[in-house]
Amino acid sequence: MTAVDGTPDTYQSVFVQKGANGWGAGLLLTPTKEKHKVISVTGGGIHPVAQRIADLTGAEAVDGFRTHVPDDQVLAAVINCGGTARIGVYPRKRIPTVDVFPGEPGGPLAKFITEDIFVSAVGPNDVLPRAEGDSIPAQRAPHEQTAAEELAEEMAEGGPTAGPLSAPPPTPKVVGRGFFVRFGSAIGYIINTFLAAGRQALNLTLNTVLPFMAYVSILLGFVLYTGVAEQLGILLRPLSSNPLGLVVLGTIVALPFLSPILGPGAAVAQIVGVLMGTQIANGTLPVQYALPTLFAIDGQVGCDFVPVGLGLAEAKVETVEVGTPAVLFSRVLTSPLAVVIAWLASFGL
Question: In angstroms, what CA-CA distances link 237 with 234, 276, 295?
Answer without folding.
Answer: 5, 9, 16
